Amino acid sequence: MADVAYALGMELPFLRGTKGRILRLLRRGTMTADEIADPLDVTPNGVRFHLTELERDGLVEQRSVRRGPRKPSHGYSLTQSGDALFPKSYDALSNAILADVRAERGPGEVEALFRRMGHGLAARHAHRFAALPPDATAGRAGVALEVLEELGAVATLTLGGPSGPSGDAESPGNQHLATVAGLSCPFKAVVPDHPEACRMLEAFLASVLPYATVRESCEKGATPHCRFEVSGGAL
């Protein structure tokens, strides 16, 4: 949303005030209060007042800077949270790269790419599952939800009914079914053009839930939502 507004020349309200102008300047690098004050036509004390509030909000941090032979002075730079306020072009870049892969190698390679990314995600977070037995599906699913939320998917795990073809709990081989559902999609800017993106999280869940079967059933329209059915294992 911020990217779209920025492209249309609509700045976020917060970035239009003095604090926003200070944050814009700090995108260039670490600056002292005096260096910030000059282009803003604000007194250094006025700048320090705003910097104190921005530091309190976790958007800027102090750093020691040296300008020439003088002794070091207090400088200020953006934190990761401060930098995150500004739009990025990652979504457009991702779509462009995926479109090129699709054109050159076909949709199968796009899907394979996302599956590899899902397995890689599982490998990076393997330490978080190390204390849980491979067949502890419920516990491992809880940890998986934490990873999904860190990616931006506000997800829930809902225990449902049996997953057998007849829907009968007494049928041989029927086991409980759980649904991992997201209120949002971390790849919503990519999914409309590249629905194979959902395979990344499917592969991730399948990797970290080795005693379960995971089936992707995401909503892939203009407002995509994650949804994965998990069957088998001790749910």
Structure description:
- With 235 residues, the chain is an alpha+beta fold.
- It is built from nine helices and six strands.
- The longest helix has 18 residues.
Give helix % range: 40-55%
Tally of contiguous helical segments:
9
Based on CA inertia axes, which overall geometry fits?
elongated
Give the class from helix and strand content and strand pairing: alpha+beta
Report the sheet with the most strands, covering strand number, pairing sense and barrel closure: 4 strands, antiparallel
Number of strands: 6
Order of helices and strands: HHHHEEHHHHEEHEE
User: Strand content of the residues, in percent?
Assistant: 15-25%
Give the N-to-C terminal Cα separation: 37 Å
Low-pLDDT windows of residues: 1-11, 162-174
Q: Please list the strands of the largest sheet in the order they lie side by side.
A: 3-4-6-5
Provide the domain count.
2
Rounded mean pLDDT is: 83
Protein name: HTH arsR-type domain-containing protein
Helix and strand topology:
Elements lengths: L1 H6 L10 H9 L6 H8 L3 H13 L3 E6 L7 E6 L1 H5 L5 H16 L1 H18 L12 H15 L3 E8 L13 E7 L15 H11 L4 E4 L10 E5 L4
Antiparallel strand pairs: 1-2, 3-4, 4-6, 5-6
